[in-house]
Amino acid sequence: MFKFVTTTPARSRLAPTLVRCLLALACAGSAANAAAAAPCYNFSPVNQYNVQVSASFWNPIIHYVAERSGVCLNLKLGRTSADTTSFVLAREVDFAFTNHLFSPERMKMGWTVFGRRNLPPVRSQIVVPADSPVRDLRQLAGATVAFPGPEALVAYKASYAQLLQRDIPVNVVFAGNQDAAFTQLFAGMVKAVGANSQLVENWKGREGAAFRVLWSSEPFNDLALMYSPRVPSERARAVARAFLGMHRDPQGKRVLAAAAELIHSPAPISFIAADDSDYASYRAFYAGVPAELR
Questions:
Q1: Phi then psi for 17, rounded to 5 degrees?
Q2: DSSP letter string over 27-46?
């Protein structure tokens, strides 16, 4: 005697499973398409250190911010600070850590300040080794003086403007970044260096070098975290939240502590909210600077 088993119940059991599988595949495909469509933004910080140290400082920070914000970010560094700024001017990046965008012409590009490091203000300085016979700016007349690069507002434009105002002619050499300028100074290749006071202190800690400061400017706030007008507001806010909340998150605190140790920062590093008003001293500088430095 044969027993026949209908296949209808089996089809009814398989149908919901099949539907769920198809829906899952469709959702996965939609998510993949959405991920593929999500843009990745380049982040360019001014080269304050040599390329290796700059990349080692910023890569873990950018990785953390991208992970926390859900916004894809790439670190884009040039060989020199001027190269890196050229990426910004060519609209190849949409996030930056810079003070190169506060001239009247560049402010027309529409970048927005959202944060800065919670570090003391910096000063433009002209420095020599502590054992140098040079004790006065006038002794630099006719000498070779190194600067990080033509875009460096604090380390080049402000310090060189001081030499111009005092009518002290010097032979200008651009080293590419502040580390390279200091290396030339202590190798005896140049007589003095235009510098950022924060980076002078970092170099002291990293290399054990001693400086004599011949001149120091009024204070400027540390460089600004900025985003371009092309970044959608929700993504800009997400990136800002991730930067500004780093020091309150255990993983973020570890990343910041490692960054501070790397550059021998004399103070802990964190990021705080900032806006355009924090950079009034930069705009004031450009209002009175010689035309050749704008």
A1: -65, -45
A2: HHHHHHHHHHHS-EEEEEE-
